[in-house]
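Supplementary notes for students who missed Thursday's class. We covered one full example, reproduced here. Read the sequence, then the structure, then the short commentary at the end.
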Amino acid sequence: MIVGTEWLVEAFDCEAEKLRDPAILCKIFERLISDLGLKTIGEEIWHQFAGEKGVTGLVALTESHLACHTYPEYKTATFNLYCCKNRPEWNWNANLRELLGAENVKITKIERGNNRNAAILAAVGKASCLPVSSVQTSKEVLEFVSSEVAAGSRHDSRQDDGVTNKKFVNYGQVKIRQRGRLPHWEKEDGIYFVTFRLADSLPQGVLEKIKAEREQNKKAITNLERELSVSEKQKIDWLFSERIDEYLDKNYGECHLRKPEIAKIVADSLQHFDNERYHLFTWCVMPNHVHTVFRAVQKNELEEILHSWKSYTAKKINKILKREGHFWQREYYDHLVRDEKDFERVIQYTLNNPAKANLKNWQWVWAYGKYNEMSQT
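Structure (token representation):
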């Protein structure tokens, strides 16, 4: 049962002096309350702190509350709005850019009462999904990226979808971690679509072919006049994940996960820390790889979660199969979900993978509650 909606908003790279001005923050409150038709209870509370002169504001609403806190030293402001009734979306991005000079605005919308809340991020700027099926050759990738560059040339190349290329990353923002051959896009409490596969799941010839394609595309991309933005790089990574999945679905290797007793070990491992270290939305154990969509919680990091799954299952499965050596491929693919459309796409992709691979009555696929309805839609 949904009991209300909460918006958590972070505004970055604001004008520091405006963050020290209670009158400007009061104006933001007044505009929001008026635009959404909210009603206040009692007096507003405002307090300015010593030192950097950050400001905290709080107003009680008939539905709940509206609060803010500013950090002039970090050029950051945070807002929290809770409503018990359905309300239209307020244009936080435009208003905070106008009144605070914010360059980046990140919005997290939460449906309270839904214990498996997706906490979908409302994308800042363009957050379109990659048309993966239409981009395969280096020429097509170059055309795709060029079109993205043309569309995004009006924006500051230092920022994209709430991500900045700063040395120090603000709380809650995306961070990029290089490990092995693939970059990993991480965010505290982020929602991830992850694929990890068996060590023998792709023949050497296939790996060499994919590597050659990537190198070919890198050469084409270097002809662009500027470095690709974060969003563009994510889309290219998603493209090659799709290419790899096409080969994985051909069931190369010994496909140990086809055996029910082995698949069950992996499935049980995925579910073991559900609601403790992460919230699972869906998972699928295929014959030679695994897909899952989950939200990391309580500051548990993506790499730690994946290591736990892979380490435990590898040891247990190797013992049962009386084998030694690497069970899982060291590298894994992860995609940081950007918005609701992106979330629905990866849920559907995971649920429909068995049918796509022509696996009949495949039992090793699961989704939480209402997300089951996304299968084959």
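Commentary. Residues 256 and 287 are 6 Å apart (CA to CA). The domain at 132-157+186-374 is CATH 3.30.70.1290 (Alpha-Beta Plaits). If anything here is unclear, bring it to office hours.
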